[in-house]
Amino acid sequence: MLKTVWATVRQGKIELLEPVEIPEGARVLVTLLPDDEAEFWLEASQVSLDTIWDNAEDDVYAQLLQK
Questions:
Q1: Between the CA of residue 67 and those of 15, 59, 62, what are the distances in Å?
Q2: DSSP alpha helices (H): ranges in 1-67?
Q3: DSSP 52
Q4: Is 19 a residue whose pLDDT tops 70?
Q5: Residue 40 CA, distance from chain mean position
Q6: Is 5 exposed, middle or buried (0-12, 13-18, 19+ CB in 10 A)?
Q7: pTM value surpassing 0.85
Q8: Closest CA to 16 of 4, 7, 28, 24
Q9: What is the Cβ-side half-sphere exposure of residue 14, based on CA atoms within 13 angstroms?
Q10: What is the predicted pLDDT for the residue at 14?
Q11: Is the Cβ–Cβ distance between 7 and 14 less than 8 Å?
C-alpha cells in the first residue's frame, strides 16, 4: 500500500509531521519539493485528483448504494 505523508528536514533528518507506523527496515521513497516549486506541484496534483474523484460516471455507484 502506498501512503503519502508530509515531513520536514531538521538537522539532516527527515521528521514526519504526523504519527505513522512504519516497520523497521521498510523502504521509503522520498520526493523533495523545492520551496519555489512546491505550490505548483500541489496544485497540479489537486487538478488530477479532482478529475478522478469529481466525475459523473461515479454518480451511478452513489445511486446504487442508496437502494
A1: 46, 13, 9
A2: 35-53, 59-66
A3: H
A4: yes
A5: 15
A6: exposed
A7: no
A8: 7
A9: 11
A10: 92
A11: yes
